Task: structure prediction
Amino acid sequence: MGDEPVMATNDDASECKRGAVQLGYWQDSYISSFVRHIEKRAPEINRGYFARVKGMERFIQKFLSKAGSLAQIVNFGAGYDTLYWRLKEEGIHISNYVEIDFPNVTSNKCYMIKRNKELLQIIHDQDGEIKFSSTDLHAGNYHCIGVDMRNLALLETKLQQAEVNYSSPTLFLAECVLVYIENDCVNRLLQWIASKFKTALFVNYEMCNINDTFGDVMLGNLRARGCNLAGISSCKNVETQKERFQLNGWLGTKAWDMVQIYYNLPACERQRIEKIEFLDEQELLIQLFQHYCICIGWLGEEFQEVNFEEC
Ligand code: SAM
Result:
């Protein structure tokens, strides 16, 4: 069936995020520029997305506070993620921001950016030209590039076109992406990063603890939609998620399941969002959280102390 079902997971994630934003779970002024369609999701799905977005955000903040204005971000399988525009809105300066996805996805994203004055103005607030091709966009410090991440040689060329600086402290993000990629390819990618970058933090949001009935149902749904879960064996548990970094030349790694992440978010924020929708089955939400995790890996001592709990 090819990669189309995997690309379609971006529509699903973006629609879920748009729906949760609309209900007030968190703020994102830009998601509606990429997603028009809103479908009502179950409250546990909205809470799950809230934990995912807030969990990722926490690590992004930690990275930025250590890396300062030299910070560079590479967002793998970015889909219609709006982080670049949200950081700009907050007045956070970074040196370079690169989004990567399949060319079909980036061409849609580039097209939507081109047609949207507000998005365009934000990426083009410095002098210099905007370079477009059908799948790529380069403007100032924003780059959206279309490439299959499994093709490491082409990825490297495209990252050079995106002016990636191997000596800048770099944050790599992957939110529900690596599960669709063969382990060999992920291993090669992680090894390549470890050989090129001195200082980096990789933040990976992914499934875990999949070997139970709940896991079977989750995976069954994705497989029924035609998704090839090529990297699923790394999602066995948080230990197998960490092994990826341990075995591929990273200095260190840590992981938390989403139960830990959710209950470490500020209590006032949790109380606020728990009032948005009534949740009948608390148990279902906990099960969902038990099946996702955030795993980080780092290169360079600077990020050794990055922790979730100490916020
Ligand atoms: N990270 C975004 C988010 O959380 O909203 C999108 C997540 S979506 C579940 C997975 C994304 O990974 C899709 O946009 C898909 O096209 C992308 N992806 C999966 N495998 C890829 C590959 N080999 N190369 C490039 N992108 C890939």
In short: Strands lie at 72-76, 96-101, 130-132, 137-139, 142-146, 170-175, 200-207, 252-257, 292-299. The longest strand covers residues 200-207. The pocket of S-adenosylmethionine is lined by residues 6-7, 9-10, 13-14, 77-79, 81, 100-102, 105, 148-150, 175-177, 180-181 (CB under 6 Å). The CA atoms of residues 143 and 162 lie 6 Å apart.
